[in-house]
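Dear colleague,

Thank you for sharing your sequence with our group. We've completed the structure prediction you requested, and as agreed, I am returning the results in plain text so they can be pasted directly into your records. Please verify that the sequence below matches your submission; if there's any discrepancy, let me know and we will rerun it promptly.
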Amino acid sequence: NGAAFCVMKDEKKYDLARHAAQPPANTLPLARLERFIEHADAIVADIASRVKKKRCLVIIEGYVDSGYGGTSLVLAEFGGILRRKLYESLDIVLLLEPTTGSMKKFVCGHGGGDKPRTIAYLARYYDLPVDLPDSDRYDAFGLALVGMGLRGRMKVTELTPDRQQILEDLFVTKKKKRQAKAIASAERKLRLEQAREAKAAAAASAK
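Please find the predicted structure tokens below.
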């Protein structure tokens, strides 16, 4: 129903805006897609008017992996249209897609970055109004901070090791992440088994 964006030069110089989508004319797929196209056109035109042909680092929410459940397909449809329009209209150096969870953890600086904590952090350190029902602007601002972190231009928020790890993970493929988790799990099981064997051997020798 709506989307927000943040064009950020640094943590104190930014444009934050939200676009509301018009309701579809009917429930047919064509009406839904036409609505998405019009919505994407309006958003990207507004971004382009602010960027003014400068090269861009684009940080966009990874819709499909954000835990929306049944609405993921709709968001993926709109996300695909929006991404194509961005590439057609802007001079994009790099486009990255952190999940909402990664963005919130980055903003809060630790693993407990839920929506209320994220909004509270941004309201406190960046003088943004607290508005829980309309969280799109906070998501857009948080994603812009991820971009500032990648560019090494954060001043208000410290680039802690946890935040640095989140940035590094943006360049690791899902396959590599799954492989790393599988290896870590196997190594953990091996250590537990070795510990049990050592304990059993120690108990046997004590007898």
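Summary note from our side: The radius of gyration is 22 Å.

Kind regards,
the structure core
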